[in-house]
Amino acid sequence: MKHRTVVVTGASKGIGRASSLKLASDGYDLVVTDILDLSGTVADIRKTGVTVNGVRGDISNPATIEKIGKKIDETDSKVIGLVNSAFSMASKPFLRLNDDDWDHTFNVSFFATVKLCRKVIPMMLKVGGGSIVNISSVHALAAGDVNSAAYDAAKAAMNALTRSLAMEFGPENIRVNSILPGLVTSERIIEWKREDPLGFSASESTHALRRAGTPEEIAEAVSFLISERSSFITGSSMLVDGGQMASINETAALNIVRNSALLGGRNARNHSGKRR
């Protein structure tokens, strides 16, 4: 019997890594990819006893997509899941974003998802269906700050793609959903917390739970949507944001402004965001 395989992008750190480890604990085989070193993720997955193959490369490069396809073909497995977690972000004001900034953000955060879906969906069709989970952001619904126009637009496009693919491939038993995290304590956010504790605290205060989430908490939602436990869920944009989008959070917004003014504008960057 062929093993069930899930492909996960952006798997070296953060949500991608946590999702890979959670899915491995669920018993799925994995094909993981990232532009960064994957050896730690691959080693930890192997400890669970499942089969894992790592593909290191730029997910926006068509050659990497082809490598992923070849790696799947080399294994005696059926692909039933895809988690698109890789992303890129150019943190600049709109008028300073050049064409390269827009191209790179969209190529990694959106078009790589398009291309990988185009590669994996035919494989799912051959085995009777599957589940695709796109890691989006609360920034798809609301602008976070003055430096995230390209990222916001790419994540909104990802949500639109999610709905379109859900409608097109639902009759073939392929479910497609997106997850919208709030602030999540990835490595880059932990670094930001050390550099700017007031700004981090202000961002946490925009969440109903008054704290950031963890990659492992997002991974639980990924596990649910990949599994048959969510068999009647498709086309959804699932908020896993600690209640960040539950309110307009006027008080929290005022705190952000006050903190920024207090520290001479140093906190104006990246305060209200999703930053995973």
TrEMBL record:
| All copies of domain Ketoreductase, residue ranges | 4-182
The record's listing under Pfam families reads:
adh_short_C2
Q: What SUPFAM superfamilies has UniProt attached to this entry?
A: NAD(P)-binding Rossmann-fold domains
The record, for Gene3D superfamilies, names: NAD(P)-binding Rossmann-like Domain (3.40.50.720)
Family of the protein in this entry? Belongs to the short-chain dehydrogenases/reductases (SDR) family.
What's the protein name? Answer: SDR family oxidoreductase
